[in-house]
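Worked example (supplementary).
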Amino acid sequence: MARTLFDKIWDDHVVERLPDGTCILYIDRHLLHEVTSPQAFEGLRMSGRRLRRPDATVAVVDHNVPTSDRSLPIEEPESRLQIETLEKNVAEFGVPYFKLRSKDQGIVHVVGPEQGISLPGMTIVCGDSHTSTHGAMGALAFGIGTSEVEHVMATQTLLQKPAKNMRITVSGQVGPGVTAKDIMLAIIGKIGTAGGTGHVMEFAGDAIRALDMAGRMTLCNMSIEAGARAGLVAPDETTFAYVEGRRFAPKGEDFEKACAYWRTLASDEGAVFDTEVTLDAAEIQPNLTWGTSPEDVIAIDGIVPDPAQFNDPARARQVQRMLDYMGLEAGQKIAGTRIDVAFIGSCTNSRIEDLRSAAAIAKGRHVAPGVRAMVVPGSGHVKAAAEAEGLDAIFREAGFEWREAGCSMCLGMNPDKLTSGQRCASTSNRNFEGRQGPGGRTHLCSPAMAAAAAVSGCFVDVREMA
Amino acid sequence: MMDKFTTLTAIAAPMPVENIDTDQIIPARFLKTIQRSGLGKNAFAAQRYNDDGSEKPDFVLNREPYRKAEILITLDNLGCGSSREHAPWALLDFGIRCVIAPSFADIFFNNCFKNGILPIRLPREICESLMEDAQMGANARITIDLENQLVQRPDGSTIPFEVDSFRKHMLIEGLDDIGQTLQHDSAIQSFEQKRQRDESWRPTIVMETVS
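After joint prediction of all chains, the assembly is encoded as:
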């Protein structure tokens, strides 16, 4: 029977199928960070259980690390405690660990692919919903809660039921100035934040094939924002070229064997998907969000919706509430809306390709008066690569802050936060109320759009700045 | 070990809102804990407290009798966003043992079961009726009968609900998943041995020192 990419990875990891259909699913890679692991390690310790496979586990600090000068101690006592707790735990249980002051440190979802830890065909989990990012490798990767983190630590498996299959086909090619972020915002805008619930979402079509690995990671990263359990892109020559030579990837003959296996994973001709969605790439514009849910998407030439246009009174109330929170008027043009902050970073958009695309806009321009613009590379290696290309100089000369790797302003758990009422052009993944700091107003967009807003002082169509 | 869940008769708090995300349930700035307990006081912090820390009197969980609510009823897509288990921990620490909504985000739905909270999916019209019941205040106690899979309304009428049989069993017995899975340890071991034998190209992560 024809199977999908998801079906194949799933079948290759089923240890045992229980009578009610629940599967004991083997986990190839378990990524840990400081926020969702302490209670799991504590549980392991209290039950006298061992960490089953330290050689399939990697830890890194990212969520609450400051992105300022790394030679200084961490001021926030609670953040310091979480980081120290992780360091104590990895030492006790023998977990490979990229420490704060290492070039290998970075956002866990940037580090995994970059180090060759995340590979095609694998099952990959982490106590973080954006684990879906690693699906770009052609791996089944998803976020889990802390109870499940402990479950994987103790058993190297999870109890799971298979998801439904969804395929999102983006046909044709996008126009200039339109990025993977714009494609994903278009998808979420179309199907909504619960559109993918219960499904694993495979991205297909010419526009997806044409994306580099960074773009595919952006897509899969935000598949959780569409409610999907995971996102997937079938591994192809782009993937293999990316993987080859990375630190923990198979080498030599092993790499050839691995590629031979990975080539078998793509969805079979005739495989049946429970849900199919199609988009025409040529119709996708540079997009951004106007509200406080990632589905509140409009094109840069669009207007902010009016609550009166919604028949459902609950929805109309919600739209009004979002407009009030965001400080926007119904019917206003989104272009021209002034911003206070531009944030380029996060597990969605902090890879070298993202920084190049922002730098291309920043080059020879300057951040508008009154705007704070920050660039936060996804890892120490991304930072070093950017510096080797001179991107840091472009950003600095243009008035952008050039910072150390971490989650930074994506989630308001470290010193990088919005203050109440500040409006931010952000390359991150969630525009929830208070996500970037209490009262902060987030507009999700691509790195190029964020850079364009930074130098213009307001949202502008990046295509007019080329 | 979790508390067993059999039946629950309790006050239900109505929150007629869609897409209540995990950042609303517990904002990220409160996640800097290394414990599971103590998050209840900051559940729904942005909606519950003013900047000076005083309570916002209009918010449902600040009003009587809902301060003692053990059931929460909302509209679609409850728990969307992060995988943080701090969200169910915060609800549990507040006292919530059952959440009812037309639909849930997947990870949150799972995380609830693992912490002894029963998530119940019911059609939107029924959720709206239950919210009307809940508006009647202290006299409007709702009973959740997990064994028989029934929600009993204050007027005595009942509404059946679906629940995964495995999850139901684990909740009723207060069982922990890990012990259950480790009963299959020999199957896990043979899976690993077969892998090592047939697919030796699969790399492991070995680092000489902390990097």
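Two points are worth noting when inspecting this output. Chain A has a mean pLDDT of 97. Chain A touches chain B through 85 residues (CB under 8 Å).
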